[in-house]
């Protein structure tokens, strides 16, 4: 943890602005040291446009292509005991703003489009994240696209109904090391988006 804190302080000093820890650890290590950081995977094209892929939810999976590298992780937006339900969405928008300040505007943003939920609460939470995300994209002029869950799973594993373990294994085959299925889903979505570029 001390190394992470020292890295964050160094990046903040170099950038001249506060930089979130998840960005420091997963995205900025290479720029500072010349070596790939943990959970940073080279993709080959340093000039490729920035892409952001999100698996929306209280535990949000994210994957970013920046300067020819894939960075990924998870963010938690659980509501605290004494907080109102809207706080998770305020923190989510602040997180998007921080990512924008660090990485610049993404050329496109992709999100996992969920059409069926296990319960009403999950559907409401997802709808809240989706509303905030699409409004943020419209405000900043970022093109966005929802991709059905089955499409992502089939691309990653060959099966449209693949389970969480299969998605994690697919991400590992691509050279990533996802911490959980949320991060694995975001990485699969990012890889899908990159594959669509090659077809265009």
Keywords:
200 residues, alpha/beta, 2 domains, 8 helices, 18% strand, globular
Task: Report what the structure shows.
The protein folds into two domains: 1-38, no CATH class; 42-199, Nucleotidyltransferase, domain 5 (2-Layer Sandwich). The protein has helices at residues 2-15, 21-26, 29-33, 87-103, 120-140, 149-157, 164-173, 181-199, and strands at 40-42, 51-55, 59-66, 69-76, 108-113, 144-148. With 200 residues, the chain is of the alpha/beta class. β5 (108-113), α5 and β6 (144-148) form a beta-alpha-beta unit. α4 (87-103) packs parallel to α5, α6 packs across α8 (181-199) and α7 (164-173) packs across α8. A six-stranded mixed beta sheet has the order 1-4-3-2-5-6. Residues 21-38 have low confidence and may be disordered. It contains eight helices and six strands, in the order αααββββαβαβααα. Helices cover 50% and strands 18% of the residues. It is globular and about 45 Å long.
Which second-level CATH architecture of the largest domain applies? 2-Layer Sandwich
Q: What is the CATH level 1 assignment of the largest domain? A: Alpha Beta
Order of strands, main sheet, comes to 1-4-3-2-5-6
Share of helix, binned: 40-55%
* CATH homologous superfamily designation of the largest domain: Ribonuclease H-like superfamily/Ribonuclease H
The structural class is alpha/beta
Radius of gyration, taken over Cα atoms and rounded to an integer in Å: 16 Å
Helices, by number, come to 8
**pLDDT average, as an integer?**
82
| End-to-end gap | 43 Å
CATH level-3 fold name of the largest domain: Nucleotidyltransferase, domain 5
């Amino acid at each position: 943890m001390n190394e992470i804190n020292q890295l964050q302080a160094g990046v903040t000093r170099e950038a001249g602005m506060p930089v979130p820890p998840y960005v420091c650890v997963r995205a900025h290590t290479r720029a500072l040291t010349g070596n790939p950081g943990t959970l940073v995977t080279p993709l080959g094209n340093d000039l490729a446009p920035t892409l952001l892929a999100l698996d929306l939810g209280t535990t949000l999976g994210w994957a970013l292509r920046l300067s020819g590298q894939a960075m990924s992780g998870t963010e938690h937006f659980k509501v605290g005991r004494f907080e109102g339900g809207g706080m998770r969405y305020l923190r989510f928008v602040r997180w998007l703003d921080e990512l924008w300040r660090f990485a610049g505007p993404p050329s496109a943003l992709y999100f996992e489009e969920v059409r069926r939920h296990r319960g009403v609460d999950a559907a409401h939470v997802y709808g809240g994240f989706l509303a905030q995300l699409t409004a943020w994209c419209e405000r900043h002029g970022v093109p966005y696209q929802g991709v059905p869950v089955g499409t992502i799973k089939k691309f990653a594993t060959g099966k449209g109904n693949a389970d969480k373990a299969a998605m994690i294994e697919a991400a590992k085959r691509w050279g990533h090391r996802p911490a959980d299925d949320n991060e694995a889903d975001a990485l699969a979505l990012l890889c899908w988006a990159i594959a669509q570029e090659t077809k265009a």
